[in-house]
Amino acid sequence: MGKLILKFVGFSFLILVFSCNKYKVIEEKGLDKAHIFKKYYKDDKLYFIETYYNEILLSRYNLLTNEDKISDTLYYYVAADDIVNAKEIYMPKGEYYSKHLDKNGNVLAEGKVFNSKNVGWWKIYDKYGKLSHENYITYNKNGQREYSQLKIYDENEKINELQSNYISFKIPDTIYLGKNIGEIIQNKPNFNDHLAYYACIGYEIEPDFSNIMNVKIDSFPIMNKKRIGLNFTKLGRNLVRGFIYESKIDRINDTNFTIDIINVNFEKEFYVIPRPDSIPKNKVIYYD
Question: What is the DSSP pairing of strand 285-286 with strand 178-186?
């Protein structure tokens, strides 16, 4: 399936009737003119979305709302009269987990979707059902999809370090409330001789990084020591996002030069637990 277009032009409105229930249908056309998204509303609530490509129905999202909890059934139309049904779980702020299946129910790909865009880590499987690789999907300032990290798996589904490029943490997944310090590791930096090399961490960054300029970011120089600080103020699941900032100088001649800059986006989930009474609340915990 083609990716969803991020911006829309041309809106048309019509009313359709299904099973005696009236729906307002908002039709949004993609910039490529071939994608059409039909959103079905009732009482100002979105109930389901249909995606068309060249007038062919590709998918339908049925949204069932129960207070703050949303469950979803995703139907993929992979061929004429061939419907694949997959259960989905919605997460806060329009983020949910999606699975792409073939007609036999085998998973082809799975990952997060946010505001109709694939985001974060997506797992890709081969025709035998083995994990082939993972891409970390993000978007540049022009809304174009980019892959900032890559994990390639061997036949035993272990990471092939030579072919992979990803960011890891020397910090436990389960961590104490409050201030913690650990290491962040980029297994293949883009530059050998950095002008600047920073890890930047945020706690309110959206899954597509669209609000990166409007949230607080903590920056840590990692040219020598790779240490970063994390300050958790709430218990339970905490997801941090951020980026590795890399820059270097390319000298053209004695008086002219250019500066190359690369940002590598990442995210990491932690589960935060209370500190034991033996550890003071204001103590910084180090993980080596």
Answer: parallel
| Residues 2/167/208/84 CA torsion (nearest 10 deg) | 40
What CA–CA distance (Å, rounded) separates 207 from 115?
9
The DSSP call for residue 93 is: G
- Residues with Cβ < 8 Å from 120, sequence gap 6 or more? 111, 112, 136, 137, 207, 267
Q: What residue has token string 């436990």?
A: 172
Q: Which secondary structure element, helix H or strand E, spans residue 147, and what is its range?
A: strand 145-152
By three-state DSSP, how is residue 2 classified?
Answer: coil
Helix, coil or strand: residue 212: helix
Q: What is the pLDDT of residues 142-195, one digit of tens each?
A: 778 889 999 999 998 899 999 999 999 999 999 999 999 999 998 888 888 889
93-97, 171-175, 180-184, 201-205: range with lowest mean pLDDT: 93-97
- Residue owning tokens 């994608």: 35
- The phi and psi torsions of 208 (rounded to 5 degrees) equal -100, 10
Distance in angstroms (rounded) separating the CA atoms of residues 121 and 150 = 9
3-22: pLDDT as tens digits: 332 232 333 333 333 333 47
Whole-angstrom Cα distance, residue 153 to residue 132?
5
Residue 192 dihedral angles phi and psi, to the nearest 5°:
-90, -35
Which structure tokens are listed for 274? Answer: 């209370």
- Take residue 75 and report the two structure tokens written for it: 């139907």
Give the helix, strand, coil percentages of the chain, each rounded to 5: 0, 65, 35
73-to-62, 99, 137 alpha-carbon distances in Å: 5, 11, 23
Distance CA 246, CA 260 (A): 8
pTM of the model: 0.67
Tell me how far apart the alpha carbons of residues 103 and 82 are, in angstroms, rounded to a whole number. 7
